[in-house]
Amino acid sequence: MRIMASRNFGRVAEIMTANMKFMLDKYTMEGSVPFDNDALPNESELRLWNLAQTTINNIKRNAVIMVNAGYSGDIGLILHGRISSVRTKWEGVDKITTINVLDSEDLSKREVTEIAFAKGTLASAIIKQMAGYIGLPVAQMTLNQDYRYQDGYTAKGKVTDIITEVCKDCGTSCFINQSKLYVRNLRSGADGVFALSPDTGLIGSPEYFEDNGIQGFKIQAQLQRRLTTASVINLTCREWSGKLHVRSGSHRFSNTGDFITEVEAIM
């Protein structure tokens, strides 16, 4: 049985859906919120202990759900998506409700049969039209090159695959984050720089990695809502100092256990 901690050391997390709010200081709960740099929605998992059945009945599939997290006086959004599944089961004396959340609608079934674009069509026009089909606002669009399809272009199949393919022709990444589409490279954009050191929440020693010629570090820190895909970290530690760009990671929160952000960040 999980006992609610009387002190959370300034931790704040709140889950909001259907005009209900579940706060860390009043409910036993935990969550894992991943983020990465591809066009497929990420699936988060939230768990709440011992909810009333009437409350559980109001947590519905496809409903919008949001999670704020941080510390007293400094909280912000870490998840905005739609509920993909809700299930409740007993573990001993505890009734645990697990909520899975996609950070956009389930886009796997969004397909186009065949759309022919005229000769000379720009990639940006195709991306905007495809984004419209999946109902995602384009938060940023910065193409390395707005590729012109001199012979035209035929869009067919999964919309997320089409967007990814067109972005590749432009030498640009695309990813979904908090129900918005970003078309941009990780190393470009007007992102705020977060200074990370042992004094600002760095946990342990960053772990160096090399992946297909890309160098970077795996980093663990106290939960930091500002870190997500394409965030810029100014890292200062014994192992290395310099600027890094986040490509993937996750936030994990709970009452007394994990309250951390883990990222892979590239040079």
Question: What do these coordinates show?
Answer:
By secondary structure, this protein is mostly beta strands. The protein folds into three domains: 11-102, Phage tail proteins - horseshoe like beta roll fold (Roll); 111-183, Phage tail protein beta-alpha-beta fold (3-Layer(bab) Sandwich), CATH 3.55.50; 193-266, Beta Barrel (Elongation Factor Tu (Ef-tu), domain 3), CATH 2.40.30.150. 10% of the residues lie in helices and 52% in strands. The protein has three helices and 20 strands. It has helices at residues 53-57, 123-134, 159-169; strands spanning 11-17, 20-23, 29-35, 43-49, 64-71, 74-91, 94-102, 111-117, 121-122, 138-141, 148-149, 153-158, 174-177, 180-183, 193-196, 202-211, 214-222, 232-236, 241-254, 260-266. Strands 1, 2, 3, 4, 5, 6, 7, 15, 16, 17, 18, 19 and 20 form a 13-stranded mixed β-sheet that branches. A hairpin with a 2-residue loop joins strand 6 (74-91) and strand 7 (94-102). Helix 2 (123-134) packs antiparallel against helix 3. The chain starts with 10 loop residues before the first strand and ends with a strand. The model is unreliable at 1-8 (pLDDT under 50).
